[in-house]
Design goal:
Elements (H helix, E strand, L loop, with lengths): L3 E2 L3 E5 L5 H8 L5 H4 L7 H10 L4 H4 L2 E7 L4 E11 L4 E8 L9 H15 L5 E7 L3 H9 L3 E12 L2 E11 L3
Parallel strand pairs: 5-6
Antiparallel strand pairs: 1-2, 2-3, 3-4, 4-5, 6-8, 7-8
Helix pairs in contact: 1-3
Length: 175
């Protein structure tokens, strides 16, 4: 895959050396709510996942990229998921790993790169994101990139004995 490069960051495919980075992210209980994770992941499972991450998006219906700073530090992950070429759509999710790197523009730049990639190279008609009602940073990020809130899934996620709404955001490519 061609490296996707922005002004301050670039996106690259997962590498075996990303094992520790992905392991820490996938086992951070603070972000489990965003990914609907219920249990920890072992290093073994993540290693297997990394070994298969080279597979084509048309085969596995997902593409996960590492967000890197220009000095090659891994900052986070951005995913296309539920890729559906029959309907030219995919879901999109993003995570900047360290709190001190959030709000710095890295997420916005990564999101724009993947949006452009999806519309240009994958011929997508639309992208969508599922965002918890209280994830204000993600709501602002997606709205600033042109995504529109098109629905509310009431009491969608149970988090620590409280049901939370989840918003559905869409970005439709206009030719």
């Amino acid at each position: 895959m061609v490296t996707l490069k922005g002004e301050n960051i670039y996106l690259r495919a997962l590498e075996p050396e990303d094992l520790d980075f992905v392991y820490v992210i996938e086992n951070d209980e603070q972000i489990w709510e965003m990914s609907s994770t219920q249990t920890p992941y072992s290093r073994f499972l993540i290693k297997q996942y990394l070994e298969n991450s080279h597979k084509d998006i048309y085969e596995v219906k997902q593409l996960r990229l590492v967000i890197c700073s220009n000095d090659h530090a891994a900052l986070g992950l951005i995913d296309l998921f539920d890729f559906c070429p029959a309907h030219n759509r995919a879901g999109i999710g993003i995570l900047i790993a360290e709190k001190e790197n959030r709000g710095s523009g890295y997420g916005a730049e990564a999101l724009q790169l993947v949006v452009n990639y999806g519309f240009t190279h994958l011929n997508l008609h639309q992208l969508y994101a599922n965002i918890s009602e209280d994830n204000i940073i993600s709501i602002k990020l997606f709205e600033n990139q042109g995504f529109n809130k098109v629905g509310v899934k009431k009491d969608w996620n149970l988090v620590k004995d409280t049901y939370k709404d989840e918003f559905l955001y869409q970005l439709i490519y206009v030719h």
